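EI: anyone free to look at a 229-residue chain?
SC: sure, send it
EI:
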Amino acid sequence: MSQPTPVASNAAFISYPKQANFGRNLPKNKIYEHSGANTRLKDLFVEQVEQIVWQYKLAPETINLPAKPGVPEIQIFAIQLKTPELNLDVLRCIDGAVQFPIVFELSFDGQTQVVAAYKRPIEVDASRWVLSDYFATAWLPSDIERATMPLALDLGGLYEQVLHRLIPTPARLQENIIDLVARVELVAAKQREVEKTATKLAKEKQFNRKVEFNATLRQLKTELEQLSR
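SC: here you go
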């Protein structure tokens, strides 16, 4: 599973209100119970995760914003890592166990990274949730000055604004979050195609095949540029 392209801005490092502080340890075995984690996933948790803290609970009763369908609450989980990299399957496992949108703050060796996927209930079955790819900031000092929490009319609007700060591609005029996320995933897939074709071109010895790969590569780069705008 590929790592997300990091966003350099620190805008996703948000100063959440004190009244939303939850500060409870989340035992790994509770995650296992609610996600049906297999042996491989449990090993990843043991090898890579030191501690999971349910740091903030953004809900109508804590920050006085109304819930919205699909966003009844937003959870902020702080994860202390044992290693500088975390397998994204660990985050997928936690997201699968907790039926709310989650924003993760990963910490290792005095550095912190904010990571989240766009998470929404499936229309035909609200008890099941669908996850996008993950979006992330670069690793920045843990004591970095944090931004004020975005203003919003409801929890759905707040969630979207937090995600916009993590997504590397700017939204088009009147593009909703579902369409933006789908386009960003297309950009990532197209980028992989570009890299794959460039590798083939570099290895190819036959002139006519080089010409073909060159033409394909130019077309892919044009499509990538159009998707990225």
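EI: Residues 177-203 form the longest helix (27 residues).
SC: 👍
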